[in-house]
Design brief:
single chain, 127 residues, golgi apparatus, transmembrane helix, Got1, transmembrane
């Protein structure tokens, strides 16, 4: 969990510092390594290389590769798109959990935000 957390931290910090190549590259490597350690190498491979997720995997891993090559802005755009395609089945679970957190649940139930969160929370494609 620590590797994944540090990976997310470095990715976030790299984007805050105007897409710093080194921080984004470290964040990408730590995130993928942490995910592999958390769920195991075989399950990680099976998750990323399912037939219906090949497009998402291509965008995500292609974005990682482009960041490592040295084009951080383009790589992060591809990577974020691939991330949303890969993990869209988990969004309803995350939204349901966040709605139970006291302060965040109140914010998510505000009139303008509630309709947007409801659209994100709906998912016909389960993982």
């Amino acid at each position: 969990m620590g590797l994944t957390g540090f990976g997310v931290f470095f990715l976030f910090f790299g984007m805050i510092l105007f897409f710093d190549k080194a921080l984004l590259a470290i964040g990408n490597v730590l995130f993928v390594a942490g995910l592999s350690f958390v769920i195991g190498l075989e399950r990680t491979f099976r998750f990323f290389f399912q037939k219906h997720k090949m497009k998402a995997t291509g965008f995500f891993l292609g974005g990682v590769l482009i960041v490592l090559i040295g084009w951080p802005l383009i790589g992060m755009i591809l990577e974020i798109y691939g991330f949303f395609l890969l993990f869209r089945g988990f969004f309803p679970v995350v939204v349901g959990y966040i709605r139970r957190v006291p302060v965040l649940g109140y914010v998510l139930n505000l009139p303008g935000i509630s309709s947007l969160v409801d659209k994100v929370g709906e998912s016909n494609n389960m993982v």
